[in-house]
Amino acid sequence: MGLSWGGLFALSYLPWKRAAAKKQIKEEIRAQIAVVNAAVQKAVHMAEEAGIRCEQKGLRIDSHQHAHMIPVVWEALTEVITEEGYAVEYIRNSKEMIGIFLARTSLWKTYRPINFVKNRLLAFYSHRVDRYAREHNLEQMYLWGLIMSGHMDYDRIAALYPSVAAKAEKDRRTLEILFHPGLTLP
């Protein structure tokens, strides 16, 4: 079984392979975070020495294609954070409020159906990120960019932003807007 997103997801539910996979994932996460943490701490220290205000003190964690939301990866990640005693100030929660997108029926044709599948799958696992954030005094957040992946153009953003921002404010969550690469116009 490969280590693609789907392969890692499947490993989360294969008890006879899960433990070995988690061990390998922890080793990789531990190595990657060690390098990043050293760089972040060096940058924070340099800023302080130069008298530059730096708001970042801890790690901000996220992953390509939201792989940290996969159960076995999430467990490996949080275990490494705990075992190494890392100061974490942010972990991306790939939780996107689907109701706002469904309410704008005029935009339905502009969304790719697979993005709704991704939204629902990631939303299912977002509760553990919410719980972790609460338990570790991290901000709760919403992510906007899954349903409109690759199609975050001005017209759609202008149409949806007031509702998305109001929902985030009402729920007292930080709103992260994710723009996937797409077409660049002149």
Features:
186 residues, mainly alpha, 4 strands, 55% helix
What is the secondary structure topology, with strand pairs?
Layout: H1 5-11, H2 15-49, E1 59-61, H3 71-84, E2 88-91, H4 98-103, H5 113-135, E3 141-144, H6 154-170, E4 174-177
Parallel strand pairs: 1-2, 3-4
The class by helix and strand makeup works out as mainly alpha
Question: What's the total number of strands?
Answer: 4
Q: How do the helices and strands follow one another from N- to C-terminus?
A: HHEHEHHEHE
User: Poorly predicted ranges (pLDDT <50, ≥5 residues)?
Assistant: none
Strand content: 5-15%
Biggest sheet record: 2 strands, parallel
3D architecture notes:
The chain has 186 residues and is mainly alpha-helical. The protein is 55% helix and 8% strand. It contains 6 helices and 4 strands, in the order H-H-E-H-E-H-H-E-H-E. It has helices at residues 5-11, 15-49, 71-84, 98-103, 113-135, 154-170; strands at 59-61, 88-91, 141-144, 174-177. The radius of gyration is 18 Å and the shape is globular. 17% of the residues are buried. The model has no long low-confidence stretch (mean pLDDT 90).
Question: Can you describe this structure in just a few lines?
Answer:
By secondary structure, the protein is mostly helical.
